[in-house]
Write a structure and sequence with these properties.
There is one protein chain. The chain has 325 residues and is mostly beta strands. The protein has one domain (21-304). The protein has helices spanning 248-260, 287-304, and strands at 21-30, 36-43, 46-48, 52-53, 59-65, 75-82, 87-92, 96-98, 114-122, 127-130, 135-137, 142-151, 156-165, 178-188, 208-219, 234-241, 268-274, 277-284. Strands 3, 4, 5, 7, 8, 10, 11, 13, 16, 17 and 18 form an eleven-stranded mixed β-sheet that branches. Helix 1 packs antiparallel against helix 2 (287-304).
Length: 325
């Protein structure tokens, strides 16, 4: 004989866990000696590891996602501020995984998006390199990212992303999954910046100019189309918003060197000028090739600016030497 259900019992089994909302707020400042220090706070599953001061005084900071991957409904928010003259390199400890959600839940059979929101604000002459490791989007996964970059006069922002669309090494495609990215870079005028050591995030009326609004989506038809991925599983994008306009001969020489650096790497690679700066794209089979090319471009940009060659972050998994040109 079956017993009657008690009021707090549920035939449907255990309740699903609520989605994560990880948060990180990071602030970098330049000390009197010229070194950059940081302060930050995080909420799980994001965690800041120990910062490392590179030889040139730049602060290298690894971010760790402790949950082991994102599922539908999860959200990450990262807010970064750089005070005047500060220099930072932010990376991730490991590749980010996004698990499939389409058709996995009766509650939401259409799937839920995993979301990452990035907000960067750089004061005058600040310099940020945002170079996370790659993102792996599992079959039927949904992921979207929005990155807002606000630059005061003389500030420089270099950002790159590499995404693998399905675990192709295991014979898996992206299926019905989708990847979206929106990058917005805005340069404030002198009247729009605060004039102090920090920069206020702008509103719609703040004076300034758009450097780039880059909206991308990959999934379904675009995975096979010639104007999309043409059947290739790896996409990469690198953007450099330069602190000032480069002379035309110097920019042309930089772009030519970046194109020559494609030699020996598999996949299709292209780069072009941004006012001011450059944009590079990768389409191919290899995350290693994408990372290697972007690392060489990073080296070229440092050299064009008269800066010290980059130091590879200690958490990166390179087995080869991508800076050997």
């Amino acid at each position: 004989m079956s017993l009657p259900l008690q009021p707090d019992e549920d035939r449907s089994g255990p309740k699903p866990q609520p989605p994560w909302h990880g948060q990180a707020q990071l602030r970098f400042e330049c000390s009197a000696t010229g070194d950059t220090r940081f302060q930050g706070r995080c909420r799980a599953p994001l965690k800041v590891q120990r910062g490392f001061l590179q030889a040139d005084g730049r602060c290298e900071l690894p971010l760790l996602h402790t949950a082991g991957g994102l599922v539908g409904g999860d959200r990450l928010s990262v807010e970064v501020s750089l005070a005047t003259g500060s220099r930072a390199l932010i990376t991730s400890v490991a590749a980010q995984k996004v698990y499939g959600s389409i058709g996995r839940s009766r509650r939401a059979p259409q799937g839920d998006w995993a979301v990452q929101e990035l907000d960067f604000a750089l004061a005058a002459s600040a310099d940020l390199e945002w170079l996370p490791q790659e993102l792996v989007l599992y079959a039927d996964g949904l992921y979207k990212q929005r990155a807002r970059v606000t630059l005061a006069p003389g500030a420089s922002w270099l950002g790159a992303e590499v995404v693998r669309l399905g675990r192709s090494a295991a014979g898996e495609s992206l299926g019905a999954g989708r990847w979206r990215s929106l990058l917005e870079i805005r340069r404030l005028s002198d009247s729009g910046s605060s004039g102090g050591t920090t920069i206020a995030r702008p509103n719609a009326d703040s004076p300034g100019n758009w450097v780039l609004v880059d909206r991308l989506e990959l999934g379904q038809e675009s995975l096979q189309g010639q104007h999309g991925m043409a059947g290739q599983p790896v996409f990469g994008s690198l953007v450099w918003a330069a602190p000032e306009t480069l002379p035309a001969p110097a920019l042309a020489a930089l772009l030519e060197l970046c194109r020559l650096d494609r030699q020996g790497l598999e996949g299709e690679m292209a780069c072009g000028a941004l006012e001011p700066g450059l944009v590079a794209r990768y389409r191919g089979p290899s995350t290693t090739a994408a990372r290697s090319w972007f690392t060489r471009i990073w080296y070229r940009i440092r050299a064009a600016r008269g800066l010290a060659p980059p130091e590879l972050p200690r958490v990166w998994p390179f087995q080869e030497e991508p800076l050997r040109l």
